[in-house]
Amino acid sequence: MRRARIQLLSSRTNPCASAGRHAALLVVVLASLVVPSGAGGQPTVSVNPVIRGTLGANGWYTSNVTVNWAIDPPPDSSTGCDAFTLTADTRGTTHTCTASWGQVHIDYPLTIRLDKTPPVVRAVPDRQPDANGWYNHLLRVPFSGTDATSGIAGCSSASYGGPDTAAASLSGTCTDKAGNVGRATFSFAYDATPPTLAKVTVVHGNRSVDLRWRASADAPLAQVTRSTTGKGAKSTTVYRGPGKAYRDKGLRVGAKYRYTVTAFDAASNSATKTVSVTATGPLLSPVPGARVSAPPRLVWTPVRGATYYNVQLVRNGRILSSWPARPYLKLSRTWTYKGRRYRLRTGSYRWYVWPGFGRVAQATYGRLLGGSSFVVR
């Protein structure tokens, strides 16, 4: 008895097929399994499977597959040679057609691999949001996938660096070994543009300073840090909040401080301004040790109930005494005091202020308000 057996798998790749471009329907007639006539005069016989389905990549089908068998001549008997259809994904289903002509037998096993399901795709961003759900610099998003049947062949990646928007998105794909393509989209908020911060203004007080600033509308948070200007000085955060102003108290008169104001937007982008300040006591301007090139305006803290003030300017002895009614006095380049004419010359000057009550002629003075100095260049 003669018996022929062959196994032809659907791993033959259609040269025109690719992972993203298939024929809608492919009819495959595999090479016939032929047993020629022998010396005993047995007839030539053949078995041909005819496959209808979409052939993807690497021998995988990506649609329902129907198989018919063409047997020539009609066999005396056959088993498993009826038409069948595969609709469920399978890593490999084998059907065997067995045909007999007298003493001639053919066993034709046919294995079909079917994957109609695209991969499940997810985004894997390179980091968590930078601040408050926002990204503020270049974002890289690789995509990964899973596929239960044929497995993953490869996935794409994408990058985003603008424009700024609360509704940014990146799309990516994964392809399985059968050529199915799965897709996913990653949505996020992106802002890489710093806010704007206007000039910081400083108003001196008695051992205090008032800082004010203006930031753009997209900057809801501000931070103020303070440091002294000495060697090894440490920086201290003295304010953090939504305000546009801050008063720093308890300063040391004559000490130099550096204030840094930083405005933050929701994505933690920032803008920064720094100012240097010399702390004052009750005598506010010029600040202690200030260098001036023009006659300064002397300014001090008002005293409740005072009706006038006595201001004395000293350089190698008292050279000016004045009684302004308001808490300031604008010096001149020249003046006369006790019949002698003076000029504001280059050098160091000290000045003092006492509050006065009632009429000037009564000479009723309170405690010395304070003393300070300036240098004329």
Topology:
Blueprint: E1 2-5, E2 8-9, E3 26-29, E4 33-35, E5 45-53, E6 65-72, E7 77-79, E8 84-86, E9 90-101, E10 104-114, E11 120-123, E12 134-135, E13 139-146, E14 152-155, E15 157-160, E16 165-176, E17 181-190, E18 201-205, E19 208-212, E20 221-228, E21 236-241, E22 245-248, E23 256-264, E24 270-278, E25 283-285, E26 290-292, E27 297-300, E28 308-314, E29 318-322, E30 328-330, E31 334-337, E32 340-343, E33 347-357, E34 364-365, E35 370-376
Parallel strand pairs: 1-10, 2-10, 12-17, 26-35
Antiparallel strand pairs: 3-5, 4-5, 5-6, 6-8, 7-9, 9-10, 11-13, 13-15, 14-16, 16-17, 18-19, 19-22, 20-21, 20-23, 23-24, 25-27, 27-30, 28-29, 28-33, 31-32, 33-34, 33-35
